[in-house]
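testing teh design pipeline on a random one, pls ignore if ur not involved
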């Protein structure tokens, strides 16, 4: 398995290539990759000049603006047979004659004349273009644009749309060949096929082995991308939250996955109780706890989220208050599609158990709830949904809202941070304002697609 950082890539075509330097027009519409089809010859304008002239700032700047920009083709090349001489290789669409060189007048002052200008035949091939340039040539400027992809270890993950179906194979083959360390190219098929709401994938190219290793926030995570949830675009949020929670705090991670919050929080010194219902996620959570040497601070559970809160969290919270009435307690609920449905468990959590809680308790649990804020959501805005689901009118001024990322043009992922009032924790449970059945039925009608657009606060690499 490869140990790699998680990186996000936009594959939009940022610049339009010189027509002379673009891949052959004959590759347009290619459905199966043929590298030999990318061979072509071009007569490229060049200028012969003394090497020291290139070190003069204004000349270098003038030449660089018009020289060739292709992989494995140097804009300034040495002449082995003439030591001390170089040639500048120009983009044919920017320079066709000596008179079109921007630095011509300055060069003439230094003794360079039109006699130094000539054409040179250069042989281009597959190696001279990036994946973005190749896909642009195959699909075309007017064809469906490949929106972006992410890497998770050795896996490149695409979110292709139906209009890409005809090009899926060639897209996978191009990326497999062009992206360093890539061994598998997969595409999300938008099918949720089990109780753990895992997304199904199809392998477009390369190995079907989706067991990999990633590094994030100074921690190493093993995972099987086919069976557990991992979102490479949340690295910044994982870091942001674990830095926000005090290092001596107690953290309950209700939907922990393989540990992107729990493990780094444990490394910082937090005591963490981490839970996930998915048995595969639980197994990798245990492995990552051991791998990162936080077993003395992070304990894993394999329970339903509500059961975890009603039993483990409740009992442990009472124990913590007995040891430290001022304990800093944080409950993380990172399941944005469904987590808000689980907050009803907090109403009456200590109802009937008030006598078990130390009288000198002086702290309340802070909840970090992840959810989606979608334009025209029939269920209303997130704060109204919180009130209905929790069965309590929460103080709006006491709720902090944090933007996490934009997952679609009209859909944001956000985090709500709020204290659980003691009156809520000890209230009678039967007064819940909305039934969980009604809420889940509404939720099932939501659009499960997660079409990704580049967000400004994530680390991304462009493919040009």
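output:
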């Amino acid at each position: 398995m490869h140990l790699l950082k998680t990186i996000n890539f936009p594959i939009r075509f940022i610049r339009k290539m010189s027509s002379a330097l673009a891949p052959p027009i004959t590759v347009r519409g290619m459905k199966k990759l043929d590298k030999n089809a990318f061979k072509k010859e071009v007569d490229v304008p060049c200028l012969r000049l003394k090497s020291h002239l290139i070190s003069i700032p204004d000349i270098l700047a003038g030449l660089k603006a018009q020289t060739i920009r292709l992989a494995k083709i140097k804009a300034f090349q040495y002449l082995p047979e003439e030591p001390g001489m170089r040639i500048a290789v120009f983009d044919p669409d920017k320079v066709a004659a000596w008179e079109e060189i921007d630095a011509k007048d300055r060069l003439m002052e230094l003794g360079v004349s039109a006699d130094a200008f000539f054409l040179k035949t250069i042989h281009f091939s597959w190696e001279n273009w990036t994946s973005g340039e190749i896909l642009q040539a195959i699909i075309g400027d007017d064809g469906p644009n490949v929106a972006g992809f992410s890497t998770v270890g050795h896996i490149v993950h695409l979110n292709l749309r139906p209009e890409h179906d005809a090009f899926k194979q060639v897209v996978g083959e191009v990326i497999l060949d062009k992206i360093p360390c890539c061994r598998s190219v997969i595409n999300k098929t938008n099918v949720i096929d089990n109780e753990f709401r895992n997304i199904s994938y199809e392998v477009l190219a390369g190995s079907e082995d989706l067991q990999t290793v990633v590094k994030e926030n100074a921690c190493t995570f093993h995972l099987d991308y086919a069976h557990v949830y991992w979102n490479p675009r949340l690295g910044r949020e994982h870091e942001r939250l674990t830095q926000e929670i005090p290092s001596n705090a107690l953290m309950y991670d209700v939907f922990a996955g393989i540990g992107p919050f729990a493990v780094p929080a444990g490394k910082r010194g937090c005591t963490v109780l981490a839970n996930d219902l998915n048995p595969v996620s639980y197994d990798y959570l245990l492995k990552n706890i051991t791998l990162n040497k936080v077993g003395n601070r992070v304990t894993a559970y394999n329970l339903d989220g509500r059961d975890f809160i009603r039993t483990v969290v409740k009992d442990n919270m009472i124990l913590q208050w007995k040891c430290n009435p001022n304990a800093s307690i944080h409950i993380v609920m990172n399941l944005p599609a469904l987590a808000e449905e689980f907050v009803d468990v907090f109403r009456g959590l200590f109802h009937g158990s008030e006598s078990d809680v130390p009288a000198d308790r002086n702290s309340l649990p802070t909840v970090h709830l992840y959810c989606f804020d979608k334009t025209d959501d029939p269920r209303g805005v997130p704060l109204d949904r919180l009130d209905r689901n929790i069965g309590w009118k929460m103080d709006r001024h006491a709720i902090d809202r944090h933007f996490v990322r934009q997952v679609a043009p009209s859909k944001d992922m956000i985090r709500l941070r709020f204290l659980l009032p003691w009156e809520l924790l000890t209230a009678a449970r039967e007064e819940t304002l909305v039934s969980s059945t009604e809420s889940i039925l509404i939720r099932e009608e939501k659009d499960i697609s997660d079409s990704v657009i580049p967000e400004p606060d994530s680390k991304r690499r462009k493919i040009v």
